[in-house]
Predict the structure.
Amino acid sequence: MKPGLWEYLLKRLLLAAVTLVLILLTSYVLLRLAPGDPVKSSMIGSGGAGAAGLSSDKPELTENEVMKKKLNFDKPIIVGFTLWLKDVCRGDFGTSVSFDKGRPVTELIMERLPVTLRLNICAIILVYLFSIPIGLFSGVFPEGKFDKAMTVILFFLFSMPVLWVALSLQALVCKGGIFPIFPLKGLEPAVTTGLSTWAIVQQTALHYVLPILCMTYAGFAGLSRFTRSAMIETLRQEYIRTARAKGVAELDIVFTHAFRNILVIMVTLLAGLLPGLISGSLLIEYIFAIPGMGDLSMRALSSRDIPLIMALFSFSGFLTLLGFLISDILYVFVDPRISFRSRI
């Protein structure tokens, strides 16, 4: 156990709680000040029956007023936010008013979260598994044939818009396209009757290939370049020259001395991975009709489902702060020059 860990965690958790409240307050204010009537838009998205407990023969104005009262939109912004935050502290994010009317928002999120987690965990593992070795090799042998070839390939990948890539792949290699190899949508085979376990596994794996490919190629290119630049800079340091002068083997220099400094950059990039569980797969899930958090976010925004949008803002803010906290803790274990007591 590192000294000062609990004091540091307590300080960071208090700071994170204040930061999260400010993020949610800003989100709530922006929703309240957005052009148009978000309550009326939600009611239209749900077929005009957004207010629970009202029959369809009620006048629209009355229904609009009841919905505003239900969402505390009839009160001043600070009062409405305080009442919403009070319910959140009790674990109640409210119910959906348009996307899936009447269902608890927490239930909708927990239903779709495992799908997004499976996709993004696979994508993150693949990105790190391939990009770090390529970046290390390019950094150790800069301006070589391998480095030049990878530079062209990776910058080409990084410049390709994910929307265009996803739609192009659907037109080329999905069912109904030129080469119908992969399924067009979803993450599970539509029919499993009569299939063996191995056949079901194969069919399911085919559903994952294109979404994960679209989610990884840009991050793969970016992380490889970051690793290469960091390795080149590290190998120019004085302590590396000293190690070489002492006769330390080149492999030991790369993996024992230089790579440890590279880990600091890897930890820094990790801070952005957790919030990317939602935002990173938003377009991909929508294009491939995958019932995950990204698809839920898109539908919540298009229908202006206020309780669901606020719950997603809360979840995204929590993941962002959690990512930074994990990164700060890992810094201490990766770099011995950093201690928890120096950061309290």
